[in-house]
Every structure is written in C-alpha cells, then in structure tokens.
Design goal:
The chain has 8 helices and 15 strands. It folds into 2 domains: about 10-125, Rossmann fold (3-Layer(aba) Sandwich); about 135-235, Arc Repressor Mutant, subunit A. A 5-stranded antiparallel sheet has the order 1-9-10-11-12, with helices on one face. Strands 3-2-4-7-8 form a 5-stranded parallel sheet, with helices on both faces. Strand 9 and strand 10 (about 145) form a beta hairpin. By secondary structure, the protein is an alpha/beta fold. The radius of gyration is 22 Å and the shape is elongated.
Amino acid sequence: MCKVKEDMNKILLLEDDVSLVDGLCYSLKKNGFEVEIVYTVKEALRLLMEMNRFDLLILDVTLPDGTGFEVCEKVRKQNVQIPIIFLTASDEEVNVIRGLDSGGDDYITKPFKLGELCSRIRALLRRVGASNGEKGTSIECGDITIDFFECCVYLKGEILELTNVEYRLLCLLVKNANRVTTRDIILNELWDDNGNFVDNNTLSVYVRRLREKVESDPSNPQHLITVRGFGYQWKEGEV
C-alpha cells in the first residue's frame, strides 16, 4: 500500500519580547506547527542561509539590532517567495506600507488573538501550496518515492530524471494507485496554465517514455498498466 508522509510546516519566529514568545510558541505548536525562535536580526539572517528549512517567517518589526523589514528585504532579494507576516506594536499607515513594500504578505498588530494569527498563517500556506498534504509531503509506493516539495522522484533511492509532464503524469497515477485513471482526467490534468494541452496521441508517447524510465521491462509493464478503452492504472509493488 502506498504510504503518505506528512511533515509539520516549520515557522521561523523573530521576536525579542520573551513574554510574548512563550505564549506564541505554545499556541503555534498546539496548532500543528514546528517553531524555531530567534531574538535578533543577526540570528535570523544566519538561519535563513538555509532558506528551505522554513515554510513561513513571522518577523517582529523593532529588534535590538535592526528591523524585520531588513530581514524581509534580504529574503526577497534572493527571489525567495516564502510567506512573511510582520508583528508590530504600531498600526500606523506608514509602517503597514513599509512592511508590504519590503515584501511582506501580511501584517498583524499587537496585541492580537492567537487564533487569528494561526488562521492567517494557514491561509498564506494554502496560497503558496505549502500546507500539509502539499508541501513537505511525500508518497512511497513500492520502489518509487515522490517528494512533492522538491518536485523530485526517486527510484530505488536514485533520483529519476523526468520532464515536467512526465512528473505530473506519474504523480497523478501514483496518487490514484490501483485505480483506473481515465484518459479524459489525465488530459485535463496535464493541460497547463498557458493553454498548452496534451492530446491522445501525445499522451501515449508520454506514457511510453515514462514506462522506459520506471519499468524494468517496458515491453511488459508491471506498474504503469494500460486499461484499454478507459485509461491507465498504477499497480503497487516493487519496480
């Protein structure tokens, strides 16, 4: 049976108010988030050298050695689209504008309700496709492992080189393992945002190419099975 693995979304919290940090950290963990706390801009920038460790940043504006705006601007200069929420004691328009202009996604004024903050976090993670079940989730199906966060596929522990269409096709079939996925569903799924579409003949080509990469004997497939008159099926088991 294919196994789905889910990791908790990890948040970096930059806040120097110790009295606020304790309650905030407790609430975030209670709501299913993993939290790492830093108290200075310097600490935050050091951790953010490994940006892919985090799914979202919560930044206080006023800190002992700088501002959250500085951290945000440096993150955006690296062209990283990680969601960022600012915490501040001031709701003056100039601060709101500065936060959003520096690349922030949301802004919440102290004191705030912890439930509201958690709701805003989940909304931002959904927006970027990083909520649990999407980002940080992988599927293991026999010798195939799909990492949805990294958009990578591993076959027997070795990375499998796939085109974008091959990757999307494999994901669709493995997610529906042991069930027939009709050609119409596949064609609709592979139609991209730019209006480029895959027709029946092209789909057959992609299926053949995918078999050559995932099957030990592509001429006698054991996993990517054609169900004549309907579509395709991914059968579990070792490749």
